[in-house]
């Protein structure tokens, strides 16, 4: 994908990780999406989109504690 290409060039780009997570989620790969969003958040702790996405996916899975912390 375009996000994989971007990450090859800029592996420390939080927005590329966020986009990759969004793409993976849309393709139904929720576990990989969580990993990508977690990486985005590690690279940019202020990435509210990644934090929101992590909280939502944990909520949807019934993982209340993880949804509340999403770190």
Structural features, described:
Helices cover 76% and strands 0% of the residues. It is built from five helices and no strands. Helix 2 packs antiparallel against helix 3 and helix 3 packs antiparallel against helix 4. The N and C termini lie far apart (26 Å). The mean pLDDT is 91.
List keywords for this structure.
71 residues; mainly alpha; 0% strand
Please report which band the strand proportion falls in: under 5%, 5-15%, 15-25%, 25-35%, 35-45% or over 45%: under 5%
Order of helices and strands: HHHHH
For the largest beta-sheet, the strand count, sense and barrel status come to: none
- What structural class results from the helix and strand content? mainly alpha
Tally of DSSP helical segments? 5
Number of strand segments: 0
What overall geometry do the principal axes of the alpha carbons give?
flat
Helix content: over 70%
Unreliable spans are none
Average of the residue pLDDT scores: 91
- Taking the alpha carbons of the first and last residues, their distance comes to 26 Å
Rg (C-alpha, Å)? 12 Å
SSE layout and pairing:
Blueprint: H1 2-9, H2 14-26, H3 30-43, H4 48-60, H5 64-69
Short description:
Helix content is 76%, strand content 0%.
């Amino acid at each position: 994908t375009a996000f994989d290409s971007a990450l090859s060039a800029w592996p420390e780009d939080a927005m590329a990780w966020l986009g990759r997570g969004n793409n993976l989620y849309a393709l139904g790969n929720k576990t990989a999406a969580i990993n990508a969003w977690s990486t985005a958040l590690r690279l940019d702790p202020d990435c509210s989109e990644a934090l929101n996405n992590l909280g939502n996916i944990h909520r949807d899975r019934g993982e209340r504690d993880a949804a509340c912390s999403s770190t």
